[in-house]
UniProtKB/TrEMBL annotation:
Protein name as it appears in the record: Noncanonical pyrimidine nucleotidase, YjjG family
InterPro entries in the cross-refs: HAD-like_sf, HAD-SF_hydro_IA, HAD-SF_hydro_IA_YjjG/PynA, HAD_2, HAD_sf, PGP-like_dom2, Pyrimidine_5'-ntase_YjjG
MF GO annotations: 5'-nucleotidase activity
Gene source species: Rhodocytophaga rosea
Length: 237
C-alpha cells in the first residue's frame, strides 16, 4: 500500500508518449485497416485485415527492437517494414510496399486517440507540476501525434532520442532531459509503460518512476510505483 504522506515533493513529471498517453495500438490499427481497404490487399493474397494488422505488429515490434539496440537505422526501419510485412503475407510488390510505408507514416500520426483518462489526468496535473515528454519515437512523427491529439500545450519540453543522441534506457537521455528542463532527479518522476526503456532508464538515472502496467503483465521488477489505469495518477500525484 502506498504511503502518500511520505511521498517526495515532485515538481517535474516526465511522460512517455506511445502506449502511455497516445493510443498507438488503436491509431495504428485504424490506419492499417484503412490501408488494407484502399490497396485492396485481399485481392493480392488470401488474407484478412486482421491478419495484416497482426503481421504488422509482429514485424514492427521486431524492427523496433533492432532499432533500439542500434542494429538498424531509422531509415532502414521505415524503408523495409512494409516490404517484410508483404513478403510474410506472400505479396511480392515493392511499389505497393513503398506506398503503404509512405501513407502509414503520414496517416497514423494524424489519429487523435489517447488512452483512457489521459486527457483528464493531464488536465488535473497541469497546474500542479511542470510536465515534459521523453520519447524514443521519431521527432517528426511525435510532434504530429501530439498536435493531432491536442496535447502539445500540456508540456514544456519534448525530449526526443534524436535530440539527445541516444535512446531510453540509456541514462544519457535522462541526463539530457534534466539539463534541458533544469530539473533535479529527486524532484522528478518518470511515467511510462515499458519496463525495459522507461522504467529501467529512470532507474539508471536515479529518478522515481511509475510503471503504467495497463496490460497487467507479470514481472519481477520493483518500480517505485505501479498503476493499471492512468486515472490512478490523480491519487498518486
Amino acid at each position: 500500500m502506498i504511503n502518500y504522506l511520505s511521498m517526495p515533493a515532485y515538481q517535474h513529471i516526465f511522460f512517455d508518449l506511445d502506449h502511455t498517453l497516445w493510443d498507438f495500438e488503436r491509431c495504428s490499427c485504424e490506419t492499417l485497416e484503412e490501408l488494407f481497404e484502399t490497396y485492396r490487399l485481399s485481392d493480392l493474397a488470401a488474407i484478412t485485415s486482421a491478419k495484416f494488422v497482426e503481421t504488422f505488429r509482429t514485424i514492427n515490434r521486431n524492427l523496433w527492437t533492432l532499432y533500439s539496440n542500434g542494429q538498424i537505422s531509422q531509415q532502414e526501419l521505415r524503408k523495409t517494414r512494409f516490404i517484410r510485412i508483404l513478403n510474410e503475407l506472400s505479396i511480392d510488390d515493392i511499389s505497393v510496399a513503398q506506398r503503404l510505408a509512405d501513407e502509414y507514416i503520414y496517416l497514423c500520426p494524424l489519429k487523435p486517440h489517447l488512452l483512457p483518462y489521459a486527457r483528464e489526468v493531464l488536465e488535473y496535473l497541469k497546474d500542479k507540476y511542470v510536465m515534459h515528454i521523453i520519447t524514443n519515437g521519431f521527432a517528426d512523427i511525435q510532434f504530429v501525434k501530439m498536435q493531432s491529439a491536442s496535447i502539445t500545450g500540456f508540456f514544456k519540453e519534448i525530449i526526443t532520442s534524436e535530440k539527445a543522441g541516444c535512446q531510453k534506457p540509456n541514462r544519457k537521455i535522462f541526463d539530457y532531459a534534466l539539463q534541458q528542463t533544469k530539473a533535479q532527479p529527486k524532484q522528478s518522476i518518470m511515467i511510462g509503460d515499458s519496463l525495459d526503456s522507461d522504467i529501467q532508464g529512470a532507474i539508471n538515472a536515479e529518478i522515481d518512476h511509475v510503471f503504467f502496467n495497463y496490460e497487467q503483465v507479470t514481472h519481477q521488477a520493483t518500480p517505485t510505483y505501479e498503476i493499471k489505469c492512468l486515472s490512478e495518477l490523480k491519487q498518486l500525484l
